[in-house]
Amino acid sequence: MSGNLQLRAEVQDFLYYEAKLLDEGEFDRWLELFTEDVEYVVTSATLSGGGDTIKLFDDDKTTLTLRVQRLRTNFAWAEDPPSKTVRVVSNVLTEIGQGVIKVYSNLVIYKAREGVDVERVIARRKDELVREGGRLRIRRREAQVIPPTLDARNLSVLI
Amino acid sequence: MLEDELDSLVRVDEGAVSRRIFADRGIYELEQERIFGRCWLYLAHDSQLRRAGDYLTAYMGEDPVILVRGDDGEIRAFLNMCRHRGTKLCVRESGNSRFFTCPYHGWTYDAEGRLTGVPLEKTAYPNLDKREWGLIRVPRLVNYKGMLWGNWDPGAPSFEDYLGEMKFYLDLFLDRFEGNMRIYGGVHRWIIPVNWKIPSENFIGDSYHALFTHRSAVEINLRKPYSPNDFEVSTRNGHGFGAQVGGTGRGVEASEEYKRVLWESIERLANREGNFVRDISPLGHFHIFPNFSMLDLWPYTFIRVWHPRGPDRTEVWSWLVVDDRVSHEERRKIARKFELEFGPGGVFEQDDAEVWYRISETLRGPVGRKVMLNYQGGLGAEREARDVFGGRASGTLGAPFGESNQRAFYRRWLELMRG
Questions:
Q1: Which residues contact A2 (CB under 8 A, 6 or more apart)?
Q2: What confidence tier does B253 reach under pLDDT thresholds 50, 70, 90?
Q3: What are B74-85's pLDDT values in tens digits?
Q4: How close B409 gets to chain A, by Cα (Å)?
């Protein structure tokens, strides 16, 4: 039990650190938290299920990198000026799997542009972490956002 | 009073449109009656309702509807509302059921809209004639080559007459599939804080914005520099499309298997209708008045409905269209590209939403909402499409990157709003 507690503390620190990097716009360092073969999938609470199902994000390291590169183009209007974000990570649970650490967490992103409007992105996440050179890395992220009809003009933030 | 002002707010021949039509609550309410109450509205694709009892919920303007395939095989559409207290009957997105029961008092309707069950009927409603209290049926529903369109107006022209000259181009799209058009599972739905006409006019004619709004896609090598060879076609009933000459997005990375299916379909239609079909397919941005849009590109095609949700809110419903002749594995690749580019988090989509929202931001003040806007792009340069394309090409050809399509949209808008 105390072993799990230690693992959970380590994983929590990792997720908090990830959130901090994103909230501070440290996108290159954020990319380093993922393995090269990462699967990054975000679905909507609408129409989950088998077969062909449309997703919000279905990224790999290449497309995640592309998203980060886009932010530096001077033409990424949705993030120009950059959104001010606060990520709240909670309900962290860990589970030891086959060579991976399964991590469940909840995420609320508060996003403000200029002015008073605040958009919220709310998600449940299921991550698979591995150790590479002693460091935790995300090999798979699966997030589901609610509500089924997003009340956000876009998803310009990373989940 | 308001109606008397409409002509001064939309002066299409001068290329001038007042911003009030994007902000005024009175205009918005009038649109619900005169546009969404009278026009043909896209509902769903029939491949989404295969078996008896399959149902889908949708919207016609602000009115929720339910589509269901009956035991007789016919698809019907109803206002998604119990006749007793007006409770929304079905809140699921889709499913299969022979009956719809209201959670309030338990009134139950069958797939043909008949009221079949009223709890304690003999005691509580001894004289009820249940035949009078069936669901409110959408009076006009058409299955046009698999696309389901509805109209609240019993006296509306047929869907084909409503399409008018646009029928030729919608056929060029739908005939490509030879019955193999499918909707990839699910729908992207989200709310953009902007008037529904802004995304609509973007999709009918705004090739111009891609150069700047979507410049980032060129910077990260997702697109080659945008082609200067653009054309825009509008038709009399407020529909239109436009594309890069040579097919929109040709040269963009796409699934080989999909490109082959697409190319064979385009060849077949070019042989049928004339060589110009090769030059205009895929069809690029595409819009059927009032709120149905499509983006038809080499790597993928998606369709959209812009549901009005108040003067300054639009609920977007967006579906990926796939061809059943393409394997599941390739479809997933196509879907990934679509999600990366035009999902709510897509690298194109997110910038559209941003610039549209900034339009709403300047509509809040009494000065900004009265300003007349410039819709003069290519004014006076319109020609008959037939004179340029030949064959059975129809409609009006506007100048490259011009705004003749947007003017056609607002011309139709004004005609309908006058009553």
A1: none
A2: confident
A3: 999 999 999 999
A4: 24
Residues of B whose CB is below 8 A from A74: 219
Digits of tens for pLDDT over chain A (159 positions)? Answer: 456 899 999 999 999 999 999 999 999 999 999 999 999 999 987 654 456 889 999 999 999 999 999 999 999 999 999 999 999 999 999 999 889 999 999 999 999 988 788 999 999 999 999 999 999 999 999 999 998 888 888 999 999
> Strands B181-183, A57-59: parallel, antiparallel or unpaired by DSSP?
unpaired
Chain B's closest residue to A66, CA to CA, is B220
Q: How many residues does chain B have?
A: 419
Does residue B92 sit at the A interface (CB-CB below 8 Å)? no
Q: How many helices (H) and strands (E) does chain B have?
A: 14, 23
Residue numbers in A near B193 (CB within 8 A): 153
**pLDDT of res. A77:** 96
Global pTM reads 0.96
B212 neighbourhood in chain A, CB within 8 Å: 75
**pLDDT tens per residue across span B277-288:** 999 999 999 999
Contacts of A148 in chain B (CB under 8 A): 93, 189
Q: Please tell me if residue B399 touches chain A, with a CB cutoff of 8 Å.
A: no
Burial class (CB in 10 A: 0-12, 13-18, 19+), A130: middle
Q: What is the pLDDT of residue B248?
A: 82
In this prediction, residue B254 carries a pLDDT of 81
Residue A44 has phi, psi (to 5 degrees) of: -105, 155
SS3 A11: helix
Contacts of B215 in chain A (CB under 8 A): 73, 75
In chain A, where are the structural domains located? 5-149
Residue B308 has pLDDT above 70, yes or no: yes
Q: Is the per-residue pLDDT at B410 higher than 90?
A: yes
Domain boundaries A5-149, CATH class: alpha beta
Would you say the C-alpha torsion B19, B22, B26, B27 has a positive or negative sign?
A: positive
Tell me, what amino acid is at B196? W
Say if B343 is an interface residue toward chain A (CB within 8 Å): yes
Helix axes B2-9, B404-417, angle to 10 degrees: 170
Q: Does A130 touch chain B (CB under 8 A)?
A: no
Place of tokens 């542009």: A113
Whole-angstrom CA distances from A75 to B129, B186, B349 are 64, 31, 13
Residues 207-236 of B with CB under 8 A from A: 212-213, 215-217, 219-220, 222
Question: What would the mean pLDDT of B132-150 be, rounded to a whole number?
Answer: 98
Closest Cβ–Cβ partner in A44, A149, A156 for B315: A149
Between chains, do A66 and B222 touch, taking CB under 8 Å as contact?
yes
Question: Is B329 at the interface with chain A, CB within 8 A?
Answer: no
Phi/psi at B343 (5° precision): -70, 175
Q: Do A69 and B315 make contact, defined as CB atoms within 8 angstroms?
A: no
Residues B242, B396: contact at Cβ < 8 Å? no
Distance from CA of B353 to the nearest CA of A (A): 6
pLDDT of A1 reads 46
